[in-house]
Amino acid sequence: MRKISFRIIGGCALMAAVFAVQSFMVGDNTITKENDVYVINTTTIGKNIEGYNGPTPMKVYIKKNKVEKVEFLKSQESPKYYAKVKKALAEKWNGLKVKDAKTRQVDAVTGATYSSKSVIQNVQLALDYYQKNK
């Protein structure tokens, strides 16, 4: 009877240890690969880059070392001003090689300076992250 109890307790302890280790190993999905496209999500790595009302997370899609598109994720920015930023900046990096996109000088949008600067910083952060982790 004691052997069975020790085995049950030992098995439970082992399972608890496995679950604890797995919880620390779970990634933040900053970089993923879908088909041949790398997707860099700045939600976690860019959480301290803030626009006017808070973080402005982005997804940057890269295929064959070229930026395919930049996706604006949900933020707390004013919809009116953020729409101006999206319209002005969404395609600024499309089609550029990563090294060229990193050095591209992009101007902030008048009237939405904080928001546009945070978007530019997030894109730069995503490109840096891609180069270091692809």
From TrEMBL:
One GO MF term on file is: FMN binding
The chain positions of domain FMN-binding read: 51-130
- Where exactly are the transmembrane stretches of this chain? none
Keyword Oxidoreductase found: no
Lineage of the native species? Answer: Bacteria, Pseudomonadati, Bacteroidota, Bacteroidia, Bacteroidales
* A single Gene Ontology CC term: membrane
Gene3D superfamilies for this protein: 3.90.1010.20
Indicate the secretion signal residues. 1-23
> Is Signal one of the keywords UniProt gives this record?
yes
Name the chain's protein: FMN-binding domain-containing protein
Q: Which UniProt keywords apply?
A: Signal
The family database entries (SMART domains) matched by this protein are listed as: FMN_bind
Record's Pfam families?
FMN_bind
Q: What's the source species for this entry?
A: Xylanibacter ruminicola (Prevotella ruminicola)
